[in-house]
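Below is one record:
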Amino acid sequence: RPDVVEKLLNSPDARGRAVGTRMLAHWADRLPDPLARLRERIADEHPRVRLAAVVACSHVRSPQAVEVAMRALDLPHDRFLDYALTQCVHALKPQWQPALASGQLTFDGKASHLTFVLQADGTKDIAGALRRLADSSQLDPGARGNLLALLADVGEADDLRFVFDRAAGRANVLEALANAARSRKKQPSGDLLPAVQSLIEAHEADVRAAGLRLAGAWQLKPLRAQAVACARDLTAALNVRLAAIAALPGVGGAEAVGELTSLTRAAHPRPLQLAAVASLAQLALERAAQQASAL
């Protein structure tokens, strides 16, 4: 009975929650939105419940079930849970494979989740597989953007160039490229300056901000003057000015200390002052501390 399942799923005892979760596997076709319940149990504090949730996901014939199951990777896991995840990938392949090919799956933007799925399925070249998927003529722009963002999280320099050349001003893809530089020290191959300059000159504020973040992450020094101009532009959107300030340590280096110091002063809006202090701290910590104390 559904009411019994609900009671067990919300039991204070992990053994009860595990039993209720296992029951979900058999009642999935008779309960409304079983994945909503499994999303909660996949994040349960007890590993026995999380294991039961992964197994239950393999019984829900939906492409999103494999996305829910992969959330178990965000918590401590052992070989038993990894084995259950692998079996889930195999069981749900008829559902997730076409959904992935059409760009419907995002895996919460976490490349580690997609990597696990593809490796469990026997894929050796993860980046190559994503490139082929992203190049499909059948994808709509949003779906292609999702795949490009995932590729930015796992690819090398040539893969990132592939992503950058196809980003088409999508802010989420450009942000993924900036994250690759910050977290993995990876950036696209080839000359990046002209394309980034065009992004900074775009009409859309989100695109301009993303271009500025890329300029800083990729340390494109010739764009320092543009970053300074954007930071001081009173007519620019706030997110553009904040992105410009965040970019100044990368594009200006030590030469940006004076500019950032001036941006901490009272003449500027509070959010810009705080952002300037944060950027200044990357270049001159003592100076940043002095300016912060004066705010």
